[in-house]
Amino acid sequence: MRWVVLVHQDNPLPGLNLQQLDQIFSATRRCGENTPINRWGELGLQGSWQQRALQRFGRNSASGTYGYFKLRALCGGDFMARVNELPGSASVVQAVAGSLNGIGYASIGFRASGVRLLPLAETGDRFIEPSETNVRNGSYPLARYLYIYINKAPNQPLEPLTAAFLDRVLSAQGQDLVNHDGYLPLPPDTLRKTRTLLGLD
């Protein structure tokens, strides 16, 4: 799963690091810098962008995306009140696409238009694109696996409905559906090992 930072498609910002994300979205700024970032000029943009105020969008507190972003990008700090909380990643994308000054964060399990996905860096300005390769090799800083949890008695086979569901999810067709929705399918070796571990082969 990739979490991305989005800006309007016309925004020329080259990228951000995690400390800057904390300065943009956090009220408590626990990642090391005390100064908030409120204008695009504070991120180096010139001309008509320099005095424009950032318009922040994010997920609501019931979302796993909210929790992960808070932990990873805000060093566990609190979101500022000026972040417009929205119910889903698609809503964040739509809001950022509709606001020239918009910046937001969302999960990448969707297809996006009207926005640009910003490259990110842990620190400094060696920005890394949120590509499949960079997520898989661990260089993109906002990525993690999504898990399916099942209730299975030890030393017992899977219940038939659970087995059928997992067989579908872990099939070539199931992984194609995952990919179609914008998520990354499991690597082939992980897929084989998981199917074997669950007794699906």
UniProtKB/TrEMBL annotation:
Domain PBP, first and last residues per copy: 4-171
Entries under SUPFAM superfamilies matching the protein: Periplasmic binding protein-like II
UniProt keyword Transport present: no
Keywords, comma-separated and alphabetical: Signal
Matching Pfam families: PBP_like_2
Source domain of life: Bacteria
Keyword hit for Signal: yes
Protein name: Phosphate-binding protein pstS
The species this protein was found in: Serratia fonticola
